[in-house]
Design goal:
Structural class: mainly alpha
CATH architecture of the domain at 253-345: Alpha Horseshoe
CATH superfamily of the domain at 253-345: Leucine-rich Repeat Variant
Number of strands: 0
Radius of gyration: 32 Å
Largest sheet: none
CATH class of the domain at 253-345: Mainly Alpha
Oligomer: single chain
Distance between the termini: 96 Å
Shape: globular
Length: about 400
């Protein structure tokens, strides 16, 4: 009897539960979930904080932005990065919320200031330029680098003058960000200060200084670049001369041609390669004899490869025989580049030598050769090209198929 009474009570309770209206059962809302995630940003667990920030990036709730700004100051870098991504996602969904970020540039937490600076650059917030210029002078290197990078991203020309002093910052990371940003701004007034960075002790700064000079396009620095490229190694180590040669080639100033031709004989193979590449970039026809010589006689594979490429870029048919000889080079990369260069020259004298390349054991060479024949367009090569339709390599077969169509006029 006792058990039956319990069963009756249980059934009655079940009926009562089932009879309860569903509307009266409290279900968690999106706002509740966001609030729970915001609370988790303050958890003692690092993984819980990181997971919460990652989840908020998917929710993109504008209400989470203040908490995410605070989380950008987390002592753990992984949490800070997740919080920054989440804040960016939320702002991307609610663009007007960018106004919440600028005040964070004045936070007492350097990580928050740096995160705020990064966000303002991500969204190209021009109204933040004055604040970012101020942040570029922050006592924290992290803040300075973030602010400088953002100024480059925003692209406000007024930032150039403010960034110039940063080229002399004690931190190599700051100097590097500054020279990249100034290059993005194409600030011609900064060309001379950037020249000095070719002598910077940090190799990344040297490289980015050369690229910045190219982006700025200020040819008034060419004489100084020539002096550096030709200077004795005791005064200008290889790295500096290499980057000067690169910049000269990219700037395309004819005054640099004799310097670069001289560079083809430098004792350092990397500088010889840089000189060859620069001459090709400039399409310097008076450099063809020198490039033909380096293609045929230089001991460094890299230099011969770059010389073949340069001769192709210049497009001077005086180089045909030298490039045909390059098809028999001991190095497969040089052979491939010689074939490509002959395609650019489009001279029928190269047809027999290119057909002979079909027997090369390296698949890249017959592919380059058949594509070169396609560019030359000599229909006499058609029967030979058709033999490659059964080549063991699929990429060679595809190239041959394309060239057959071209030469057949289909």
């Amino acid at each position: 009897m006792k058990n039956s009474r319990i069963s009756v009570v249980a059934i009655a309770l079940g009926v009562a539960v089932l009879a309860t209206p569903l509307a009266s059962i409290s279900m968690p809302t999106q706002a509740d979930r966001v609030n729970d995630l915001i609370k988790s940003l303050s958890s003692a667990s690092v993984s819980a904080r990181a997971d919460a920030a990652e989840a908020l990036a998917k929710v993109r709730a504008v209400s989470s932005i203040p908490a995410l700004i605070k989380a950008m100051g987390d002592p753990v870098e992984s949490v800070r990065k997740q919080a920054l991504r989440a804040a960016a996602a939320a702002i991307g969904e609610h663009r007007s919320a960018i106004n919440l970020i600028q005040p964070a540039l004045s936070s007492g937490n350097a990580h928050i200031r740096a995160g705020a600076a990064s966000l303002l650059g991500i969204f190209g917030e021009r109204s933040a330029v004055p604040g970012l210029i101020k942040a570029a002078k922050d006592s924290s290197q992290e803040v300075r680098t973030a602010a400088i990078e953002s100024l480059g991203q925003i692209g406000d020309s007024h930032a150039g003058a403010a960034l110039r002093p940063m080229l002399r910052d004690a931190s190599a990371a700051v100097r590097n960000k500054a020279v990249v940003a100034i290059g993005s701004l194409r600030d011609k007034d900064s060309a001379q200060p950037i020249i000095a960075l070719l002598h910077d002790p940090d190799r990344a700064v040297q490289a980015n200084a050369a690229m910045a000079l190219v982006r700025i396009g200020e040819k008034s620095v060419v004489p100084e670049l020539i002096s550096i490229a030709l200077g004795p190694e005791s005064q200008n180590p290889f790295d500096i001369r290499f980057y000067a040669a690169y910049a000269l080639g990219e700037l395309g100033d004819e005054r640099a041609t004799p310097v670069l031709i001289t560079g083809l004989k430098d004792h350092d193979r990397y500088l010889r390669s840089a000189a060859a590449g620069a001459l090709g970039q400039m399409r310097a026809h008076n450099a063809v004899p020198g490039l033909m010589q380096t293609l045929g006689k230089d001991k460094a594979d890299l230099v011969r490869w770059t010389s073949a490429q340069a001769l192709g870029n210049i497009g001077d048919k005086r180089a045909v025989q030298a490039l045909i000889a390059g098809l028999k080079d001991a190095n497969e990369d040089v052979r491939e580049q010689s074939a490509k260069a002959l395609g650019k020259l489009r001279d029928s004298r190269a047809v027999p030598a290119l057909i002979a390349c079909f027997k090369d054991a390296d698949e890249a060479i017959p592919k380059a050769a058949v594509l070169a024949l396609g560019r030359i367009g000599d229909r006499k090569a058609l029967p030979a090209v058709k033999t490659l339709l059964s080549h063991r390599d699929a990429t060679v077969r595809q190239a041959a198929e394309d060239v057959v169509k071209m030469l057949s006029g289909k």
